[in-house]
Protein 1
Amino acid sequence: MLFLGGAGYASSLFYPDLLLYFPGVLRALGVSINQSYHLFVALCIILCYASTYICTKMVTKKRFSSMIGAIIMTLSQYHIDDIYTRSAVGEFTAFIFLPFLLYGIYDLLYEELSKPGIMAMGFAGVLLSHTNTFIMCILLYGFIVLFHYKIFYKNKKLFLKLLLTGLITLALTCFYWLPVLEQLKDSTFGLSNSWVSVKDTMREISSIFENQMPGMGIAIFLLCIPRLFTIKTKKNKKLLVYGDILLFSGIAFSLGATVLFPWERLERFVNFIQFPWRFYLLASACLSMGIAILYEIYFQNRKSREAALIAVLGIMIFSSVTNIQRTEEGYYSYSDDYYSYKPFTASVIGGEWLPEQVDSLEKVLEYSDKIVGDSGEEISFYRKKNEIHVSCKNMESSYMDVPFIYYKGYRAVSYDNEGEKIEDLKVSGEGRHGFCRVYFTGKEEGKVVIAYKGTWAQKISYFISAGAMGAVFMLSRKRRIF
């Protein structure tokens, strides 16, 4: 946000994904914004493939099934649509971390959480990428724990280990969620009055299998057919049971996006999800790894595995190509005037993280280059990086509304003619169209500087997260947690 959020930090409160620093680094090196975004997308695709391959291999110990899972995950219809149709950066980034959480379930149920760092990495990555997906993952883990409660009842140490992993994850990500909670406590945001209703966006059952957005597509379900002919044996029991958990979860999440789920009755509790078909994200991950495990069990000899790999690759490539061909919106290409052309810079879609006081985006754009006093007069100013500087010469207003959309943490300081600080001025969110309102005291002489300086909660959260990271580093040196 160039002028909407004022300081870039205000927007990063809600989108803290560390991977997003990658295009920022490219921009600093002189790469165009369009190329930076394309390279970021390519990086996410590569990391999605790599994380699925690695996590599947930790379960099956075989390259064949690892490739199967990575191919299906990367080319799954919903993943392709997230990239090329929706440009849903948060969601397709979350795809990278879901395999860590799926391996975490296996580690929890069958290896007594021997590598808690993998689970923590998954939860932290998903939380920092896409909050709605994080909530879905909590839901999945909740069902897993409840369904296998006997394991935790008999092994209290395992349950405590799970809780400790959760607490460490919370500490590591404190720099994100604590400032967000602080902002939510201080202000009311657009997400409180969702612009879309979940009951209006739930899907028909048949639409799951169609080649449309949103949908899962028929390909990923056709690849589940070998499960009908797979027999459980003493040798494959553990692996097949885990694969079944994933396949069942994938199908359940797919159906959860449809009219079979009572969205109308639960709307007031879950409307923040906006689109029930977000469940397809977790469904795609569960089915991809579940099918990979299934194929590891079903196809035993080399020739059948080679044929299966070729078939999976062909089916998924055909599916992804047809998805891209029918794409109407296309994956966004950003022009080089992204920052200078206001409608591009100010695009906030639903405006969920805009304060409720922002009554009109058109008015925000109209007044983005104006400071207005209490009587409606315009006050001259200039910008210096992320600061606004206002001259106090001949100032008669009792307050002014500056073109920074208000978030807790903005600060206004008055200086005398020699540049010495006089005092801090009161800043509130009562300005026109959600802008910061700065109140004068009558002592102003030289100038007033307005900038985003953060809050104590934000600064404390940095220390908590840094301390947790240091503790994890020391712990990892003493024993293997990854």
Note: Residues 1-11 have pLDDT under 50 and may be disordered.
Protein 2
Amino acid sequence: MLPDVDLSVIIVTWNVRELALACLRALPEALTPAPTGAAQTSPLPHEIIVVDNASTDGTAGLLRSDYPHVQLLENSENLGFARANNRALALAQGRYVVLLNADTEPRPGSLAAMIRFMDAHARCGAASPRLVRPDGAPQPYAFGKDPSPLYLLCRALAHRRGTYLHDWAVREPVQVDWVSGACLVARRETVAQVGGLDERIFMYFEDNDWCRRMRAAGWEVWYNPGAEVKHIGGASLGQNPHARAAYYESLVYFYRKHYGRLPAAILRRLV
């Protein structure tokens, strides 16, 4: 690990060129700490790694020509979220890494604030900033509890009442079971201990699984609304006709891995 790299920014892309470019344009300000008095500030030492999952919209070519400072990894096929991120994690040099969706736009100072938060919480293995929709409203399911059978039942009942189990508009940092992989900052030491994302998951629930493994190893997971990132959401998924099926397949796999074969079999029959 290079000691002068605070953060490795990892972005996985698949046919979302314009959104990915907007995300890249937002990074310099997002990595710049808020000024204190008259002091001038500059972006934290960082590196950017983009993993392109065989996009056909010219993403890779444009990055090669216009963003030479970005380390570009080109896949010959769509490897999914976990495998693509793991390619970058194997190369990352930062004290921290952030998995950042291509359809996000970090607000000025947000990623610098996340590093400051992690430095102040020595047992925090992973954390997320406040995720907001394009209209500024808090994004549902930015964090939550493990999707145990009882939890899913309570969530279904809450949905029938038109409510949620969590307050997505929290104002203070809160310790949680998992945070969204749309913008997930992880400590290098934690990743080295628990390993990368589970590559048997193509997409969905890899963030739940990663955070659960971190907590099992003694680390904490936090949601920090003191930093903010806009998340459009579903930009790549709209191009994937199998997204809904993948969601349930990943959920069943998560159940089999963490709760056993019988709960997984029951869940498969239900979904």
Note: The CA atoms of residues 48 and 253 lie 31 Å apart.
